[in-house]
Specification:
By secondary structure, the chain is an alpha/beta fold. Helix content is 41%, strand content 14%. The chain folds into two domains: 241 residues, TIM Barrel (Alpha-Beta Barrel); 67 residues. Helix 12 packs antiparallel against helix 16. The structure holds flavin mononucleotide. The site of flavin mononucleotide has 21 residues, from strand 4 and helix 10. It is an enzyme of class 1 (oxidoreductase).
Amino acid sequence: MLMHRPLDTSRADLHVDAVAPLDESPLRMGSRTLPTRYFLAPLAGYTHLAFRRVIRKLGGLGLATTDLVQATLLLSGHPKSRELIETSPDDNPLSVQIFSGIPRDLIGAARWLEDQGYQGIDINMGCPMAKVNGSGGGARLMCDTGGACGIVESAVQAVSVPVTVKMRLGWDRENITAPALAREFEQLGVAAITIHGRTRQQGFRGEADLLGIRDVVEAVDKLPIIGNGDVRTAEDALAMRRLTGCPAVAIGRGALLDPWIFSRLHDHAQGRPMQDPSPDHQIQFLIDHFTFMSEQHAERSCQLFRKFAAWYGQKLGIPDDLEDRLRRFESLDEFLEIIDQIRARHGERQATVPTALLKVPNGPVEKW
Ligand SMILES: Cc1cc2nc3c(=O)[nH]c(=O)nc-3n(C[C@H](O)[C@H](O)[C@H](O)COP(=O)(O)O)c2cc1C
């Protein structure tokens, strides 16, 4: 079971100034200025348009990125890839994340996205999945420093919008290539790098290595390094910034567990007490998410919404039996009936661990 331990701010090896104020001014990323320093990390299957819109509505989100999109399929007009990049005027600022082991396709997709009006391209160099690595994409690129630099250089030269990279610390403990790659990428003109503080070999096991992230921050000159991994609370995000020196943080699973994490960080940045949502706001959040999903996916929205229930249930005080129904509902009427019951029985929950945390993949990464 994956339990959450708060990030350890007392580690003697980290020399943290716990009181110095953090810079919360808008972050410059190439030609873009991002309103806050707390970003949504891409989570394939979750961070689609509806989720991004409903999170943005709560406030405080600085940047969102689409799920990873296979460049070749995107260029060929594959319907699923095109669906992954669907956006709306309120879905802004947004970057599109692409991956490929074929440089020509990656560059072609970046150009095509710029032509379509997208304002940021993120290259995936962190995905550990065998089917992505097998074709030379994702974290596999971190093993070939020359190849990775070649692709990044071509992408930066091919488009005028900012190009960013998301990567891990390296392939495994013996091959920590992130600091050297980050230094090279800065010279090549990338606008920012997100570092997930694990190796590819770790998959999602163990804890994010904050010292590893700090090594990358220290390896670059001025390039913004976005820290990522295991941030579950607003306090974790602040601790990550203090411990690593990274100017911004990307939050993935923590946003599914607590969609208000960005608004709370924004409260903090503005010098306000961090606000907890009322039960009415929590229920409205569920309705808004489902509404946005229905606008995009019509009859598929029930099926697509169900998997969020296991993440939301604990934070939103959804009684266990109603969470279970939310994981199986089949129609709008049934959704509304469950919502009425959640409203009447809000907070009557027994389970203290979010159901989703019992199910995170834990086996050998090769088997995913
Ligand atoms: C279900 C799932 C899907 C993911 N999909 C992507 C993806 O499409 N692109 C990517 O760069 N990272 C992806 N990641 C990695 C996350 O962006 C992030 O780096 C990782 O989960 C650690 O951050 P967190 O602890 O805040 O979730 C995914 C992670 C999970 C759990």
